[in-house]
Amino acid sequence: MDDKIRREIILDNYESPFHKGLVDDNGYKRVSYKSQTCIDNLDYQIKIEDNIVKDIRFDGDACAIATSSSSIMINNLIGKSVDDVRRILYNYKNMIEEKDYDNKIIGELEVYSNISKQPNRINCALICCNAIEDVIKN
Amino acid sequence: MNREDFIMLNKDIVYLDSASTSLKPKCVIDSMNDYYFNNTSNIHRGEYNEAILNNKLYDETKMEIAKFINCDKREVIYTSGCTSSINMFVLGYMKKYLKNGDVVLLSKSEHASNLLPWFNLSKEIGIKIKYIDLDSDYKLDYSSIDKLIKENNVKVISLAHITNVIGDIRDISYIGDICKKNNILFCVDAAQSIQHVKIDFKKYNISFLSFSSHKMMGPTGIGVLVGRYDLLEKMEPLFLGGDMNLDFESDCSYSFKEIPSRFEAGTMPIAEVIGLLNSIKYINNIGVLKIHSYIKELRDYLVSGLDKLDNIVVYNRNSDSGIVIFNVDKIFSQDVAIYLAHYNICVRAGNHCDKILKDELGVSNTVRVSLYLYNNKEDIDKLLNALKNIDKIYDIIL
User: Which residues contact residue B252 at a Cβ distance below 8 angstroms, ignoring those fewer than 6 apart?
Assistant: First the structure.
């Protein structure tokens, strides 16, 4: 992907993130995620009905990578079945960890394909992924 | 000053993270290498030359510390660092002598190390924690101390001499006097002050003083607890084992060595003790007053430079130490730190181990610059130049 386009996508999602702001609704499962290695501190709310991810919200303080990846990830996951969500998370994680992945499955999230070159940002790129994985596991 | 003594500065690096850990001068590293290359031995009971030399250095370091802060050498205990020192007296002394309802005064600008051990006592034995007010500069409001003492059963005041986020220098002489008059124990966390401010353990009526070596140009892995002798007599050792016992028998009876040996169980970090000795000598050779006034000059230069940038908010403009915290408008502090790292400028972003200061400061995270004697105005100019061009941050970090 062209560097300029990649940067624009990340920046757009950082400066005007989608799905930011939590809602007062018991139908959502909530998970708080504080990074163990940096200062990202985000809360996620996930609503799953009939095995479909109906909605995800997030809020908190985090860096450009953690915020933008949450925004793009959530955009990708809403409306998907839990199995599809698992598949996206699996491929995304593989990409971040420099393993084989299917770029058709992760879509726009491919903007983070080079993040492994900045080791201190890997956890920032994984925070949303890990949070949603925790909710799905439970 | 003395930049040539710091090998790491030969790299193209601007090191502005000394409140986190300081750089080490070559003489400190050489002294530790000498232990490892030429004079390795354990201490105590070795009858050979190397062991005798290391015994001497181990004791000499205690004498040097005692002279450095004006205490008795028997009051000096080696620990693994400042956190360990605070835990040692909180768990070894305070847990035994404080009672349910006794009040400990802290402030919201303390490091986690001077909060969590007390929180633990609050849970375990029911002590009450009260916070001394902070003023509009986030400095201690001294008038609130008297009020808190009048209204509560205050048994302990435990404060940082210089806080690690705000960087304000507390008047520990004044607080020590208040403590003496009111029969209150006074505990001082000197992690951020020992390296550039004169401390007088006896004169300031300090009960327990804690600091780390690695922030005063010494090695990591060693710190110091200085405790008033009559308190140490009542303090329980937290670790039992080799070198701290005088005798033990198969019927489970045992006795401890004298103070302070009973608090130094197992093989102590000998190379680090020797490194600490040389870091103190290094500081003494320059002089703490000279170091402090140099840092203050650098700080003023930095703050006046930051003032000229209109997108920067400095939170601790009126502090006197080398610590300056700020944020850049609309940019997350961690992103600022990553951007500066691109120019080999080393700063820190976050809450800096004080997660309750946000109640006062209104923000959870900041960028922290911390200066020490090896910094110069050129370092600050490089930082200011990078900050001037921060509108390009996302071209750099994304």
Answer: none
User: What's the pLDDT tens digit per position in B275-324?
Assistant: 999 999 999 999 999 999 999 999 999 999 999 998 999 999 999 999 99
Fold classification of A3-137 is Sufe protein. Chain: A (3.90.1010)
Own/partner contacts of A34-38, CB < 8 Å, gap of 24 or more, are: A35/A66, A35/A123, A35/A124, A35/A127, A36/A123, A37/A120, A37/A123, A38/A63, A38/A120, A38/A123, A38/A124, A38/B334, A38/B350
B355 and chain A: CB distance < 8 Å anywhere?
A: no
Q: What is the pLDDT of residue A131?
A: 93
ipTM of the complex: 0.86
Say if domain B27-285 classifies as CATH 3.40.640.10. yes
Axis crossing angle, helix A82-96 with helix A122-137, rounded to the nearest 10: 150
Q: Which of B351, B364, B394 sits opposite A64 (nearest CB)?
A: B394
Q: Is B333 at the interface with chain A, CB within 8 A?
A: yes
* pLDDT tens digits, one per residue of B27-61: 999 999 999 999 999 998 889 999 999 999 999 99
Chain B residue numbers with beta carbons less than 8 Å from the beta carbon of A10 are 394, 398
Establish if B338 touches chain A: CB-CB under 8 angstroms.
yes
Q: Which CATH class is domain B288-397?
A: alpha beta
**DSSP element (H, E) containing A75:** helix A64-77
Residue B234: exposed, middle, or buried by beta-carbon count in 10 A (0-12, 13-18, 19+)? exposed
Domain boundaries, chain B: 27-285, 288-397
- Domains of chain A by residue range: 3-137
DSSP-derived letter for residue A18 is: T
Sort A112 into a burial class: Cβ within 10 Å, 0-12 / 13-18 / 19+: buried
Cross-chain residue pair B394–A120, CB shorter than 8 Å: no
With tokens 């990591």, the residue in question is: B220
Could you give the residue ranges of the DSSP H alpha helices within chain B? Answer: 26-38, 49-69, 82-89, 95-97, 116-125, 143-151, 172-181, 229-232, 270-286, 288-307, 333-342, 358-361, 377-388, 393-397
Q: Do B398 and A64 touch (CB under 8 A)?
A: yes
